[in-house]
Amino acid sequence: MDxxxxxxxxxxxxxxxxxxxxxxxxxxxxxxxxxxxxxFLAHKVNQQAYQQEIENEFSIKRSTTTTMLQRMxxxxxxxxxxxxxxxRQKVVKLTPEALKLLPVVTHHIERSEAxxxxxxxxxxxxxxxxxxxxxIERK
Length: 139
Description:
Blueprint: H1 6-26, H2 32-42, E1 48-50, H3 51-58, H4 62-74, E2 78-82, E3 90-94, H5 96-117, H6 122-137
Antiparallel strand pairs: 1-3, 2-3
Helix pairs in contact: 1-2, 2-5
C-alpha cells in the first residue's frame, strides 16, 4: 500500500465510513445519511432547517436531497412545509417519530466518532482535521 495515492486512500476511507454508518442505520430502517440529517436537524433551533441548508451541510445536489427527504417523509421522520414568505423555500422539520430515534442516532454517531479518532493523539487529530478541511475548502 506504499504506492497508493492519498486520493485513493481518502476514497477508500470514505466508502468504509459510509458502509459502517449504513450498517448501523439499517437496524432502524434508515440510511447513514438519514441518521446524519436527523442529528443535524436536532441541533438546529426548533429542530428545523431550510432544505438548502441540508444540501449545503452535506454537499449534496438538490435532486438527491429532495429524494432523500421524500423517503424520510414517507417514513414519517420529517415534514416539509413551504416558508411563509417564500413558497419556493422548503422548511424541513423533525417529527416526534424522528425524535424517538434521536438517542440511538446520537449514540451511534458519538461511538463512531470516538472509534475513528481513538488511535490518534490530540495533535494528530488536529493535523488530520486540518488536512481534511483543506481538501473540503478547495471545492
